[in-house]
Design goal:
This protein is α/β, with parallel strands linked by helices. About 40% of the residues lie in helices and about 15% in strands. The structure holds NADP nicotinamide-adenine-dinucleotide phosphate (NAP).
Length: about 290
């Protein structure tokens, strides 16, 4: 292996340690514990797991969490009313509505109902709009792309002037990752399902952020020697040697790409742990903004 492994677990732990220390200092100074409200509509098993992980992270770092499960047939009005109640609750600093919402609900309207000073997921149209505009500052940046940039910086990868390729243009990962790279002065290409000759595009990249949800899609011979590879993908690959019958792999063919790249994140243990760490950082920031 020639690539340097980017240890997302260790980098996420450092972020969480810093948040825990800042929370302890706040409390010692007589200020409130930051509080995160989670809203889960329906019973998706994966969403319930993510919410539990977020609640556990709050407890580990000395923060409050308030969980609000709603039935899957909740109306738009019921969900928006809950968000408005949480907006008005001073013990709640951050509001996280777990996505995806059931199909009958209008996600954009729900996200728009969140007070932007409590928008710790960074998905409110105003926060995303500010992220896209020069000279404007979003209050919060979406957690997974925020984590990707943090991994690059902590690893000493130079972003300014680099050619960066983002695979995927979703609202939650690909597009905000591309906007963040532009803000860091990279030259950015966004690849999506209609892009022609993807291997050729990827070969020009000094930095690749892969977020398309296609198992081991990026191959070793697509990668420029020395490039930094951030793999956001989480895919289950059948594996009879594992007790559960599968293992998690990314959107990058790790075994091939690690021989060519300069830096690479593993799956699991790369981007995954960063998402919750950045959510905790955003929740602390929300409490600090609301102190003012
Ligand atoms: P998504 O909403 O399904 O978006 C996928 C994107 O990839 C779309 O923009 C799509 O293009 C593009 N795409 C799909 N197939 C492609 C192909 N063959 N060639 C080129 N582009 C293609 O996915 P997402 O929510 O962004 O998630 C992406 C991956 O990241 C998933 O594996 C997900 O599990 C993972 N994820 C991980 C974390 C974490 O914390 N580590 C967080 C979120 C997501 P079009 O726009 O043209 O359809």
């Amino acid at each position: 292996m020639s690539a340097q492994l980017i240890d997302g677990k260790a980098i996420a732990q450092k972020v969480k340690d810093d948040v825990a220390a800042a929370v302890a200092a706040r409390v010692a100074a007589g200020k409130s514990k930051p509080g995160l409200a989670t809203v889960l509509v329906g019973e998706r098993v994966d969403s319930a797991t993510y919410v539990r992980m977020k609640q556990k992270a709050c407890a580990d770092l000395g923060m409050e969490s308030f969980h609000h499960p709603l039935p899957s047939d909740s109306t738009q009005e019921e969900v928006e009313n809950l968000v408005r109640e949480l907006n008005a609750d001073p013990t709640v600093n951050g509001i996280l509505v777990q996505l995806p919402l059931p199909d009958h609900l209008d996600e954009e309207k729900v996200l728009q109902a969140i007070d932007i000073t409590k928008d710790v997921d960074g998905f409110h149209p105003i926060n995303i709009g500010r992220l896209a505009q020069k000279g404007r500052e979003p209050l919060f940046v979406p957690c997974t792309p925020f984590g990707c940039i943090h991994l690059l910086k902590e690893s000493g990868v130079k972003i300014e002037g680099a050619n960066a390729v983002v695979l995927g243009r979703s609202n939650i990962v690909g597009m905000p990752a591309a906007l963040l790279l532009v803000r860091e002065n990279a030259t950015v290409t966004v690849v999506h399902s209609r892009t022609q000759n993807i291997p050729e595009v990827v070969r020009r990249a000094d930095i690749v952020i892969a977020a398309i949800g296609k198992m081991e899609f990026v191959r070793g011979d697509w990668v420029k020697p020395g490039a930094a590879i951030i793999d956001v993908g989480i895919n289950s690959k059948p594996d009879a040697t594992r007790k559960r019958g599968y293992r998690l792999v990314g959107d990058v063919n790790f075994d091939e790409v690690k021989e060519v790249a300069g830096y690479i994140t593993p799956v699991p243990g790369g981007v995954g742990p960063m998402t919750i760490a950045m959510l905790m950082k955003n929740t602390l920031r929300a409490a600090e903004i609301q102190d003012q």
